[in-house]
Model the fold of this input.
Amino acid sequence: MDKLLRKENLDLKLTPYKVLATSTKHGFMQFVQSVPVAEVLATEGNIQSFFRKHAPSDKGPYGISAELMDTYVKSCGESTRELDRIHP
Done:
């Protein structure tokens, strides 16, 4: 999917998970560390504070890395994105 979208000049900053089938019933899947949005809100108060803590930048918007903001905003456009997870 990511390759098709990029071919159309649409980079939604997708990170396809790695999956390896070892049989018709078994396989391995990549674990991606993430934090539930509810936990971010409970501990940091808001998503911006969480981003400032994990990707600070004096030159970026709101004191947050411009690259992180770009990736986050673009990832929100993906309909299959797990909406309650943030990948630090």
